[in-house]
Amino acid sequence: MAPFFGRDIISLRDMTVDDLWKIVETAGRVKKGDYGNFLESKSFATLFFEPSTRTRLSFESSILQKGGRVFGFANPKGSSQSKGETFADTVRTVEGYCNVLIIRHPVEGAARLASKVVSIPVVNAGDGANQHPTQTFLDLFTMHEQMERLEGLSIGMMGDLKYGRTVHSLAHAMAMFRGRMTFISPPSLQMPEEIKKELLTAGIEFSEVSEPEQAAGDELDVLYVTRIQRERFGDPQEYEVVAHSYRVIPETVGMLGGQVRIMHPLPRVDEIDERVDGMENAIYFQQAHNAIPTRQALLGLVTGALE
Ligand code: CP
Q: pLDDT tens, 160-181?
């Protein structure tokens, strides 16, 4: 049985290193053009209860480019949730209209809940501050494309490590590849204790610092920058205390050894100076574009169109 066929994609905690390699290798073949319209005859629903540019549009573009059909909503105000319908009733209804549900929701655990009430595959496109697995798949694909390896990379994760779901998923993945991690954040936005405990239990080394200068000796392969997640702060004043904490400038790249790749899941606010965009080190737009082969590969595997 193909390991992905019919499977829910909810959290990196559910995945193995073989699963991650399968996605990266399949995405590589898809990017080379090895397959045709493999999503023909498949229908997908994108239910986005929270804003998105990259995730929703790259899923939709991925599906259309491979001959599939896609429908959904980008704003729950246009759905019957605004009339009081429960999330569970919404997903149980839409289950009857498609082969796969792709869900983004502000509540942690929403995608897992959906997977319990429907029998078709559910793909988590980001649930609150918890997980964003498909972002991690394209992050890994991009790192592999750039460095031709995933094992033992040295990665600095900088910014909002408390609320940033992309770095939560990425930390789990880097642990599977025995990476070295440096967490760079204000003290109030450190990586959650639960994740740090999981890393320690797995025997994974990490360090925590508050300034990128403190990572200068770590020979980072990647500096993975994240936005401070304004929408997750209950108190706007708390956000203002940490907003604009970091700004990557061309000198930051030099200070980190000159070879470091700068990645960012995007959107950015002001944490990477636009002068960095033209540097060879800046790979965040390539990273965003790699969403297409990576998400095509994943959907092909989950629907059984690819093995
Ligand atoms: N990286 C990412 O999730 O971006 P969007 O919020 O625009 O989908």
A: 999 999 999 999 999 999 999 9
- 79 and 73 Cβ atoms separated by less than 8 Å: yes
> Can you list the alpha helix ranges (DSSP code H) found in 213-290?
236-242, 250-255, 284-289
Single pTM value for the model: 0.97
Q: Cβ atoms within 10 A of the Cβ of 166, count?
A: 25
Which ligand 1 atom is the nearest neighbour of the CA of 51?
6
- Same-domain pairing of 76 and 218: no
Is 277 found in the same domain as 145? Answer: yes
In the reported structure, the alpha carbon of residue 281 is separated from the centroid of ligand 1 by a whole-number distance in angstroms of: 21
**Which atom from ligand 1 is nearest to the alpha carbon of 132?**
3
pLDDT in tens, 178-222: 999 999 999 999 999 999 999 999 999 899 999 999 999 989 999
What CATH number has the domain bearing residue 297?
3.40.50.1370
Task: Specify the number of domains making up the chain.
Answer: 2
φ and ψ at residue 192, rounded to 5 degrees = -55, 145
| Ligand 1 binding residues, C-beta < 6 A | 52-55, 126, 135, 265-267
